[in-house]
Target: RNB domain-containing ribonuclease
Amino acid sequence: MYALFDDAGKFLAGRVMSEADSSMQIELDSGKRVKVKSANVLLRFDKPQPAELVASGQAQAAGIDLDLAWEFAPEGEFGFADLARDYFSASAGPELQAAMLFKLFEAPHYFRRAGKGQFKKAPEETVKAALLAIERKAQQAAQIEAWATELAAGSCPPPIAEQLYRILFRPDKNAPEYKAVVEAARRSQRAPLDLLKEAGAITSPYQFHWRRFLFEQFPKGHGFPPLEAPQIKDELPLAAVQAFSIDDSQTTEIDDALSVTGLGSGSVVLGIHIAAPGLAITPDSAVDKVARERLSTVYMPGWKITMLPDAVVQAYTLDEGRDCPAVSLYVTLDEATLAVTATETRLERVPIAANLRHDQLDEVITEASLTGEALAEYPFAPELAFCFRLARHLKAAREVVRGKPELFNRPDYSFKLDGAGREPQGDETVRITERRRGAPLDLVVSEAMILANSTWGGWLAELGVPGIYRSQASLAPGVKVRMGTKPAPHAGMGVAQYTWATSPLRRYTDLVNQWQIIACARHGRTAALAAPFKPKDATLFSVISAFDGAYAAYNGFQQAIERFWTMRWLTQNGVTELDAAVMKDGLVRAETLPLVFKALGCEPLPRGTRVRVRVTGLDLLTLEVHASLLTRLDATAGADQAAESDDSDEDEAPAASLSLAIDLADAEPPPAAA
Model:
């Protein structure tokens, strides 16, 4: 005697060797003997042989019409053998009974299992819904197959082009577009990015980087809803100063300006004037919600996405020729010793006499002219000379606290694109110019802002008003700058505490801090009761968390797109050789461009070694530079500079390789149509 039994959803058949009350010993065709519970035995038969029964049953199951079988099935529970006799004939033998068992088991949308060998037909509505789902799945499988074939042949179907960035970076792995790309990559044995590029889905490397950034950070677009700049209700007094700002010509969000009064009197007052959108914009207002969503202006060569709409920016920016609302910090100093004797914060209107521009004056306003060694023929020469003297004094004092000097070993670079004033397309001619870090005008502005941010940070703490602080526990390797709501030393700056409060048109943290500073200016010792944000306010922590993520993403994009334009400059100028300094692990830094990359052959060279490398390839899509060592220029020049640099290797690393969210392990042959 033979038996057909259910082994965890798999049907096996063999010879019955022995039988007890509740189990059987069955020998399979392989010779293996298994113990089977009697309840799992579904069919006993004398012929044919077990293997023949299974093979014949599977073959005849393929010909069973499920719709007809469903019609024949009774309403209640039934056994497969009973339905076989109703469907085939009253004399249906073991092979036909096995065929019906196999067919019922593989059609749960028609027949529900009600026990071992027992079934119950599904309601008609369930069957119809299941059949529709099967049909949709079959159609989807056919669509995936068609798209995959098209992609592998070098053409990109429009639905995949429309979903390009979602497929690559934030995919729904059940979506047919994603499955088609994975299947086409598997079938053609090509990387998904190469496949899509060759199929025409990626036509412009610049647009690829730009639209990827928008997809990740501005999925609803970077336009603004209709917004008007709120009016400042305060009657602000007019300051008795003539202030000047120092920015690049492209700067439209002029946040800060300086003034100097009392020169020659023995007591000089430095005014640090910050644009005051916080006097008009209120927390949770429509403009605030937009600023809080964006958190910062995004900068890139030739273009920017501002934190605030242009109309709002223009209402509060410190444009020359206007009396602009400002939060002003007045620092009174002994003219001889530069010792601070008093500080005061005022809310006022400040006359902006001039907007000085770096790119127009950096070559004119030199250290020699500021120190009297050369003729100073430019606006505000006496005031700038005092500011420069003070800036060097403040920097030296901070360096004492830091324990080592601040070194500006590497220049900054400015990017200018042809056709300025319109959104770049990626094919513009780019010009890259060098600007030495720590130039006199840079030093004047940076030291004034550090003075304001550290002074206001201490004032907030003194009045018990929370703010958003930046701190760094030490200058030890790996100790990073952190943000928090309590004052703490900033080792990198060399100050007791440090806020961001001097760029409220460009950074949301600065706007938040400005609200707190305004409360202090208005209410003094009772400011903690009136400030918008109280100690341990959860909103401050959420702002810090959101800002950290957004600011890192924006900076990452800026670095990547500057790398793109640097590589474009190499192509446009036909540059194939670069002089560079070795860093570590084969990384080198170009001497005259903002470019860090790996060069084959540089791995064993000591840090600081000057080399000449040959650029052998550029990939504007992945931003990879392929280069190799051409010759070693010397072994020592630059080594001291590299050793003394304050910049960590993390900051020196090139842009990360393009990371896709496509997993080729998801590849599987599309299901056959039912």
Remarks:
- The mean pLDDT is 89.
- The longest strand covers residues 340-357.
- DSSP finds 21 helices and 24 strands in the chain.
